[in-house]
């Protein structure tokens, strides 16, 4: 299945940044960052992950971060991109770690934002709560609760209109309960903590 992606910036750029989104999976997440990257001279690829945004279709079962990393290789091949700087947020950062382990020759560097190498009890509790909301109260309650997990309370209160727009957008583009459960399952199963020493590309870690 072909994945949907957008290419921004100069076609003759010497370096490419590939943007990999978090749990929502859609390329639109990166709209605020793309102009700064293209202005800096990078060719930028942003893509909708399998089952999200404009990329439809069913997911392989059981779905895994390794599947998502193979999708990135498919995009790199389709765009004639030998290597990329992969910038990943949350789940997208996990995809970057997996890609660096499975196909390090395709990775020039990693920039990982709020990513992790193995689950911890706090993140597990957060995902359990999200799954319970989805099962018992449905997609609208699920997306309404997202800001509680994502943002500091003071920031969310001060930016209530922006948060409301994001919630409405997330609900309008919700990929479906089955796909979301499979994506959360892939997150929960991911654990490369004992393999981090195998990663031989530069990596920058950002967290908040």
From TrEMBL:
Gene3D superfamilies: alpha/beta hydrolase. Transmembrane segments: none annotated. One of its GO terms (molecular function) is monoacylglycerol lipase activity. One of its GO terms (cellular component) is membrane. Keywords: Hydrolase. One of its GO terms (biological process) is acylglycerol catabolic process. InterPro entries: AB_hydrolase_1 (IPR000073), AB_hydrolase_fold (IPR029058), AB_hydrolase_sf (IPR050266), Pyrimidine_utilisation_RutD (IPR019913). Residues 16-136 form the AB hydrolase-1 domain. It comes from the Bacteria. NCBIfam families: RutD. PANTHER family: MONOACYLGLYCEROL LIPASE, MONOACYLGLYCEROL LIPASE ABHD6. This is Putative aminoacrylate hydrolase RutD. The lineage of its organism: Bacteria, Pseudomonadati, Pseudomonadota, Betaproteobacteria, Burkholderiales.
């Amino acid at each position: 299945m072909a994945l949907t992606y957008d290419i921004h910036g100069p076609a003759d750029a010497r370096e490419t940044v590939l943007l990999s989104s978090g749990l929502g999976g859609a390329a639109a997440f990166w709209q605020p960052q793309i102009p700064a990257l293209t202005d800096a001279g990078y060719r930028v690829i942003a893509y909708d992950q399998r089952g999200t945004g404009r990329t439809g279709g069913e997911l392989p079962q059981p779905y895994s971060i390794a599947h998502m990393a193979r999708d990135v290789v498919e995009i790199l091949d389709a765009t004639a991109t030998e290597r990329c700087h992969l910038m990943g947020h949350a789940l997208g950062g996990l995809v970057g770690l997996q890609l660096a382990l499975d196909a390090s020759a395709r990775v020039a560097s990693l920039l990982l934002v709020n990513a992790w190498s193995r689950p911890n009890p706090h993140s597990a509790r957060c995902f359990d709560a999200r799954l319970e909301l989805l099962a018992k109260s449905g997609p609208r309650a699920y997306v309404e609760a997202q800001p509680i997990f994502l943002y500091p309370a003071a920031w969310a209160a001060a930016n209530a209109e922006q948060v409301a727009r994001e919630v409405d957008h997330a609900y309008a583009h919700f990929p479906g309960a089955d796909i979301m459960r499979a994506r959360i399952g892939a997150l929960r199963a991911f654990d490369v903590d004992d393999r981090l020493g195998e990663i031989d590309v530069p990596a920058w870690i950002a967290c908040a």
